[in-house]
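chain below, 187 aa
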Amino acid sequence: MQSCRLCKDLPLGPNPIFQLDERARILIVGQAPGRITHQKNRPFDDPSGDRLREWLGIDKSAFYADPQIGIFPMGLCFPGAGCSGDKPPPEICATTWRKKTMAALKSVELTLILGAYAIAWHLPHLNGKTVAEAVKQSSEGQDRVFVLPHPSPRNNRWLKRNPWFEADVIPRIRQSVRLNLSESERK
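prediction:
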């Protein structure tokens, strides 16, 4: 995957960005890397990542150094800017890489899903629901899955309109993250 060049026409060129290890117990699935991520060549090394790590209760060094934390976006490369944010991830990315990579990740115990494209692929029964509806329906962590709004500063308005997310859901997510990381230390 690291050497994938299927999408040669991307505005900044192909640059697959993900963080995966066969020992991953926590898997974060999002849309696609943004412009800053593309430039830094590291997932979530931007203000979105700062908020995501805060939500998870994980510091930056552990987030990048712990092989138990995997990051696998729907699109591996920055798709370019659109009218109201980044363009959607190219479908060829998911059809080429998603199934075989997910099948190889046998240790995943907790999946965190960010964004409509990730929701549609991982939780097709929630496809077409609003982000708020999808987050609410997964707010208890059923089947070891949580849906989160994208942690982008662009979603500050959503977070203000939905204070229940940070008040009620984030503590459950943090607890699940802690449990999954501490369970592996006991094994």
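The radius of gyration is 16 Å. The chain has eight helices and six strands.
thats it, cya
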